[in-house]
Sequence to fold (79 residues):
Amino acid sequence: MAMSLKNIENFIQSYINTIAIVLKLDITVVDNNLVRIAGTNRYSTEIGNTIHKTKFYQDVFSSGLPNIMCKKTRFSACY
Fold:
């Protein structure tokens, strides 16, 4: 049986909080249903909400690989 991210959301939140502080960036984690499981800074108030499906997230889920968005306005998958 596959583990749901929801089952380890406290661990995920703690982990990304540390990463966000060290790297000075905002982080969000969504599950395969596009529900935000964890988030830092501006994303923290959106935990539990469903995000809008964008090409960025479609690419992540279809490839199975993590991705980083450095500049939203310069990332073509966001348009």
